[in-house]
Design brief:
The protein has 296 residues and is an alpha/beta fold. Helix content is 38%, strand content 20%. The protein has a domain of 169 residues: UDP-N-acetylmuramoyl-L-alanine:D-glutamate ligase (3-Layer(aba) Sandwich). A nine-stranded mixed beta sheet has the order 3-2-1-4-5-6-7-8-9, sandwiched between helices. Strand 1, helix 2 and strand 2 form a beta-alpha-beta unit. The N terminus and C terminus are likely disordered.
Length: 296
Amino acid sequence: MNFCFCGHKIIKKTRIKKAERKIILPSSPYILLFFVSLCPVMEKKLKTGKVFLIAGSEPLGSAGVQADIKAITRCEGWAAASLTCIVDEDVHRIKGIHHLPTDLIVSQAESFLSTVGADCIKTGLLPTDEIIHAVAGVLRRFDKQPILIDPVIVNFEGKQLVSDAAIAAYKNELFPLATLITPNVREAEFLLGHPISNPESDLKKLSEWGCSVLVKSVDEGRYLVDYLYDQATGVLTPHPKKKLMLEDRNGTGDTLASAIATHLAKGDDLTTAVTRAEAYMNYFLAGPRYYISAEL
């Protein structure tokens, strides 16, 4: 059996016996049927969504641009990127974050967006307020496609990762440009200034920047729930998942956000894109993964 992890039907392969094989000559009318049968495939190729990433690189392959590219590719999208920084880390600790020059970050983005174009733009690690300001300028110039902002401001233990000035730049410059923001539960609580107690009212508050909101991994007893609040419709949709004893959860937020971005790039509406990305995550979390970064 062949499985596609992005919402498509399961297709069963069948073998053709040697006795049933026929030689099709160029003059055969079946050659026309062959090309007709390729049309859906060709159409699908033309509709492959292009996701442009503006994010950092890390050497372990479990987070950052590396995780983004894997998720986008598995969900049948095309990934391209402007790097913002190089993170130096091993399985025990982050040893350093080295920022790339702001003008280089902008130039990388403009090189792709002005000549190839994107069907969705997703941001990741933007380590300084200067970089955030520059990226916001790029997004204002290239604003015809969905924009997904995956804020990297607080880790899962609640430790602040960027400066107060960078957080203010997120709020004032990036969130108002976003189609969707995808904070983890600690980031959402940091932005709210209090723990999440009423998901509907709390996510509605976060949507006041004019964007839809997906808050990841809200603890609801036996389940962790990803809550989607669609700012356009006012509808709150829960996506519950059973708690798993994961030894390595580094990069899971990046993976989910990139899967959503891919489905937005392929033309899905927000609710469908999130539902399909959540289905992909169920496969991703249940399957075997490299255990390399438990202490990060």
